[in-house]
Amino acid sequence: MKTITILSGKGGVGKSSISASLAIAISRQKKIIVADCDVDASNLALVFGIKENDYKEWEEITTNQRPVFDLSKCDSCRKCFENCYFESIKWQDEKPELLEYSCEGCGMCELICLQKAIKLRDVMNARIGYAETKYGFKIALAQLEVGKSGSGKVVTEVKQKATQLADNSDIMLIDSAAGISCPVIASVTGSDYCLLITEPTPSSLSDMKKALELVKHFNVPHGIVINKYDINKERSGEIESFAKKNNIKLVGKLPYDKVFTEALVSMVPVIEKSGKLDVLFSRIAEQLLK
């Protein structure tokens, strides 16, 4: 099974909209499984028109820990309070109290407590499940709990879930989170190809270059799609020149079209709303399948 990961660096460039339409275009030629690996704010399923009651087999998962205080053993030495790097412990009535939303579960407090009054315990930090799309393929996804960390590990769980659901699929298409942090690293790891989405703005090009460094670090073959290329053709030309200079394949260009917004509002992939865009997405899909 070939794994294709779609990432962007900058958020808001149309990555998830493009991922949804490419999934449909690819599914016309190959059997596909989709993984939404933006676990902090997963919304790819919404683009496919999937609603809350359409999800199946929600499973609580644990990829993180939090400290638990045994106050009967605490001698009020304040070491945990004074040495917490994230300032996640407040001192209340001469005893420690955890500020859960700022705690990263690093374990310093457990390590430094001579009274053994602090123990790290596993906590549920996400739930993982899947849904059937009306296009004949499944989408695996997870939802990180508010204030919980460990999103990189949760992404790995989503990829494993997608593999379980693959049922001899030819392609796994991953919609990564924006940025270059742990969730994106976990998405890119093990990929056979990465498609970077950018747009002709200074910030998008700058962030794409950062994402490109990550992809190159893992030696993953890659290409670029310029979305909304016609809003600034001069800047698009700069992106094309950058790609040519660095031997990066320009897989495709998509025009600005308000039908993208109309499709999102209707919870329908844009490929279904525009014949012109259908042709362009099909061409990009053909490039990815070569």
Automatic annotation (TrEMBL):
Residues 65-94, 95-123 form the 4Fe-4S ferredoxin-type domain. InterPro entries: 4Fe4S_Fe-S-bd, CobQ/CobB/MinD/ParA_Nub-bd_dom, P-loop_NTPase. This is 4Fe-4S ferredoxin-type domain-containing protein. It comes from Candidatus Falkowbacteria bacterium RIFOXYD2_FULL_34_120. The lineage of its organism: Bacteria, Candidatus Falkowiibacteriota.
